[in-house]
Amino acid sequence: MIDVLYFAWVRERIGLPREKVETTAATVADLIAELSAREERYAMAFADLSSLRVALDQELADFSAPLKGVREVAIFPPMTGG
Hints:
Layout: E1 2-6, H1 8-14, E2 18-21, H2 28-38, H3 40-45, E3 53-56, E4 59-61, E5 72-76
Parallel strand pairs: 1-5
Antiparallel strand pairs: 1-2, 3-4, 3-5
């Protein structure tokens, strides 16, 4: 079981700030594919992975990163300073 957290417009499109997900996904990309297959709202939120970033247990990671041992996945748009 993995906690998946959604931030900013990702949260708005999916309609949830977080959820617990039971998954057999090996990588972040596999998890995103599983979620996208659930419903249209997930597919829309994850349609363009180049507009998203991911953190595993609060450490920035790539979509190819393995999920083994990970407790939390955060998905969010890139942040900009100002």
